[in-house]
């Protein structure tokens, strides 16, 4: 019987090629998009899910409050790890991790040979044997106990092969290495690289005992309980039955006993689940990329919508075709077929089409992965499609789609009454039947989804354009910056490099200062202003810059004077308008001459006020800000290039000379620069990914909707072919016929727009609340969304309506 069902299914496909092709193509596009989305979502949610007892592993993070300002910090005081291990009863294990600033690695060659140097190595940490009790590695040589002693290092297999050219990586054990020419260590163990997806992607593990042995305690605030630097991290594993809230309370009590909260400063420790590291943007992560849960959930919604669109097409076209299969159903019922048998036959046809569409979608996936490679993690390749869980998902998807797309049509087709069908009375007044209204409802639903995506795409693009083109309060074009790490440089060497850069003719202006006006990094402190009547305390961003810095970035002076380069004796402050306003000065000039008291009780005068500018993205309000010109702490070079003319090599020549000048002063440094406007664009990476997602979803939604519309138009014109012939004979023009055939479908598009407009307004308005500074929502955005869908629908309709209107009426009426 199943064989007979399949034979009938493929016979029906051959008989109705156009409808079958539209059904298969619509389902294939929806299924392929769903598969790619599932690959992305499954990959992102798989991070750090493989650890044994992973549900009991947490990272200790900190919540800091200064003078009304709140900061989330991934670090903890350095002494906490040792104290927690002995003082807190609910912990099964603790592992301190001290991250490094991508050190230089030198491999000793012996025999007085020059060591091989590897610059800026990522994934280098200080830790001990406890870390390997939390995270399970396969040991190729050595054991966790090797990290009990100082000056020992454990390498992953890939890093050992990179450093030492041995066929057997375990031969690297016993070799000598050094970090930043200051710490010499011996390779004591080799572990296999973690194959699972993880943010704990460390490659080199230096024994923690090396820090005090090398007198690096000050670098890591080794004994200080009130310092929270990002390189001091702590992982803990709770005992069974112990709640994270209990343990956090004990940790807070321990920290408070060593460092009581001072006036205006409050700290609290929290436990962050290990599998939350990949998603929580409040805290730093060890990996290089982070996922965004709302975006992933949005992807799932998009996948569901695209599948629904494909299923709507199938339902619409199958029920529309029911008139052509009514007699087949009537004869089968007359010959003894039960309704259950007919439903099984029609469902098997749907299953055959879905399987065909799935096979086609698998063939489309490499194209989708290539087309959207910029938004898809590199680890997601076509080969991942054949993992057991992905195959199980595809099988489940086939059956779910078959059920969604085929169940209702099979009920309709199997429900015909044989007597009425064989008398040609089954479709009297069919234009007003429930099936016709269902088709219209489903078609409107398709257009609602498509228009929603279009309007969303236009509004997200408008906000991104607004963010990137808004006057942020400074110059951002043709500005390049690069940084010399503080540990590698002295003020005198930086000044030598500065003079060399000033002599390059292709550079218009250069200055040595702090970070750019807008940066993801922030240094803040509690500052107190004493206006003679009362002291006002405020958490304030602190930046470094002098007059040349403000001139290069064209930051406007509102009152007073700009900062001048200073030595360690003469210091002064420049503040922004927000600082002056929040300190109670309506007129910025009134704050000139007042003094700011720092946390070390030092008093510095305010000499000027600059206009407010955005130091962060437009998601946040402008914060109080002060500048000081501390030359000895400046390590970022800011360079203004001349305007780039088409075909000009000015910038290329400038970069070549910059690289040469850098290597003359710092031979081991690589010239790694960033354009300032690109750094600003980086603030809106999530929004840009959302924009690409919506553009992609809009295109697919419109394509699938138009496929369904085309199928319905083909069916409608086929049903009305004799009516069209009669109207042409009676003198109807092509324009009148096209208008007649298109009118009902255009009404559906308009109805969809009326429903979509308020829904999309609500969704977009909700999304825009994430921005402190946002674009407007003009009416023409919504009108444009409806107009775009209307134009695309008209083009789709014209493909078939013009063809039907131009057909020879004699052929249509010959059989009458």
Care to describe what's here?
The chain contains 23 helices and 24 strands. Strands 1, 2, 3, 4, 5, 6, 7, 8, 9, 10, 11, 12 and 13 form a 13-stranded mixed beta sheet that branches. Helix 14 (491-502) packs antiparallel against helix 17 (650-665) and helix 21 (734-768) runs antiparallel to helix 22 (779-805). It is globular. It starts with a helix and ends with a helix.
Give short descriptive properties of this protein:
globular, 6-stranded mixed barrel, 24 strands, 13-stranded mixed β-sheet, MacB_PCD, membrane, transmembrane helix, alpha+beta
The number of strands is: 24
The backbone outline, from C-alpha atoms, is: globular
Question: What does the average pLDDT come to?
Answer: 81
Helix vs. strand class: alpha+beta
Domain ABC3 transporter permease C-terminal: 301-415, 698-802
Domain MacB-like periplasmic core: 20-253
InterPro entries: ABC3_permease_C, MacB_PCD, Macrolide_Exporter_MacB
Organism: Paraflavitalea soli
């Amino acid at each position: 019987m199943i064989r007979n069902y399949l034979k009938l299914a493929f016979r029906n496909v051959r008989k109705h090629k156009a409808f079958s092709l539209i059904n298969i193509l619509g389902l294939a596009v929806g299924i392929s998009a769903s598969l790619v989305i599932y690959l992305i979502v499954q990959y992102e949610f798989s991070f750090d899910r493989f650890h044994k007892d992973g549900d009991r592993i947490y990272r200790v993070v900190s919540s800091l409050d200064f003078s009304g300002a709140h900061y989330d910090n991934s670090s903890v005081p350095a002494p906490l790890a040792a104290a927690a291990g002995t003082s807190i009863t609910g912990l099964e294990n603790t592992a301190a991790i001290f991250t490094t600033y991508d050190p230089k690695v030198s491999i000793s060659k012996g025999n007085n040979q020059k060591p091989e140097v590897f610059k800026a190595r990522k994934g280098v940490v200080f830790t001990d044997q406890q870390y390997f009790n939390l995270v399970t590695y396969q040991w190729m040589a050595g054991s966790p106990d090797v990290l009990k002693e100082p000056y020992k290092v454990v390498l992953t297999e890939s890093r050992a092969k990179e450093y030492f050219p041995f066929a057997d990586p375990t031969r690297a054990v016993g070799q000598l290495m050094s970090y930043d020419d200051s710490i010499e260590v011996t390779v004591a163990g080799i572990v296999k690289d973690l194959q699972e997806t993880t943010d704990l992607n460390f490659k080199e593990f230096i024994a923690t005992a090396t820090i005090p042995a090398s007198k690096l305690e000050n670098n890591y605030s080794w004994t200080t309980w009130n310092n929270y630097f990002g390189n001091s991290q702590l992982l803990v594993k709770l005992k069974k039955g112990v709640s994270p809230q209990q343990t956090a309370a004990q940790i807070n009590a321990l920290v408070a006993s060593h460092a009581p909260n001072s006036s205006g400063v409050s700290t609290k420790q929290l436990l962050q689940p290990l599998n939350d590291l990949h998603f929580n943007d409040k805290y730093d992560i060890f990996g290089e990329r982070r996922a965004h849960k709302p975006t992933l959930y949005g992807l799932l919604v998009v996948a569901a919508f695209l599948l629904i669109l494909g299923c709507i097409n199938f339902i619409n076209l199958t029920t529309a075709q029911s008139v052509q299969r009514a007699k087949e159903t009537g004869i089968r019922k007359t010959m003894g077929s039960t309704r259950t048998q007919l439903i099984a036959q029609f469902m098997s046809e749907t299953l055959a089409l879905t399987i065909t569409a799935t096979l086609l979608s698998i063939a489309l996936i490499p194209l989708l992965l290539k087309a959207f490679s910029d938004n898809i993690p590199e680890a997601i390749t076509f080969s991942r499609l054949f993992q057991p869980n992905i195959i199980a998902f595809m099988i489940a998807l086939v059956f779910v789609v078959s059920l969604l797309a085929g169940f209702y049509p099979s009920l309709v087709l199997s429900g015909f009454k044989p007597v009425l069908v064989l008398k040609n009375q089954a479709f009297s007044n069919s234009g007003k039947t429930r099936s016709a209204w269902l088709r219209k409802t489903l078609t409107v639903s398709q257009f609602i989804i498509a228009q929603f995506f279009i309007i969303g795409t236009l509004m997200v693009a408008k906000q991104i354009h607004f963010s990137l083109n808004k006057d942020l309060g400074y110059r951002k074009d043709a500005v390049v910056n690069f940084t010399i790490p503080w540990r590698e440089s002295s003020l005198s060497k930086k000044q030598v490099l500065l003079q060399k850069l000033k002599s390059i003719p292709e550079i218009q202006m250069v200055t040595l200062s702090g970070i750019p006006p807008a940066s993801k990094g922030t240094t803040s402190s509690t500052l107190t202003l004493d206006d003679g009547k009362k002291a006002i305390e405020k958490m304030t961003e602190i930046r470094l810059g002098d007059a040349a810095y403000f001139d290069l970035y064209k930051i406007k002076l509102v009152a007073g004077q700009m900062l001048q380069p200073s030595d360690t004796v003469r210091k002064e402050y420049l503040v922004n308008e927000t600082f002056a306003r929040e300190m109670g000065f309506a007129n910025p000039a009134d704050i000139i001459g007042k003094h700011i008291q720092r946390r070390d009780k030092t008093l510095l005068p305010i000499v000027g006020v600059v206009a407010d500018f955005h130091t962060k993205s437009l998601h946040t309000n402008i914060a109080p800000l002060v500048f000081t010109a501390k030359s000895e702490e400046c390590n970022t070079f800011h360079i203004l290039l001349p305007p780039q003319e088409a075909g000009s090599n000015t910038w290329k020549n400038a970069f070549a000379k910059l690289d040469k000048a850098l290597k003359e002063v710092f031979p081991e440094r690589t010239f790694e620069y960033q354009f300032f406007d690109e750094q600003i664009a980086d603030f809106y990476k999530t929004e840009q990914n959302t924009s690409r997602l919506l553009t992609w979803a809009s295109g697919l939604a419109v394509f699938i909707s138009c496929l369904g519309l085309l199928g319905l138009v083909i069916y409608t014109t086929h049903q009305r072919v004799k009516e069209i012939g009669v109207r042409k004979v009676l003198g109807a023009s092509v324009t009148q016929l096209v208008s007649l055939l298109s009118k009902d479908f255009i009404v559906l598009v308009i109805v969809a727009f009326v429903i979509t407009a308020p829904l999309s307004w609500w969704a977009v308005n909700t999304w825009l609340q994430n921005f402190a500074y946002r674009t407007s929502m003009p009416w023409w955005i919504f009108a444009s969304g409806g107009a775009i869908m209307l134009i695309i629908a008209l083009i789709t309709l014209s493909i078939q309506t013009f063809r039907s209107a131009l057909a020879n009426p004699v052929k249509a009426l010959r059989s009458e």
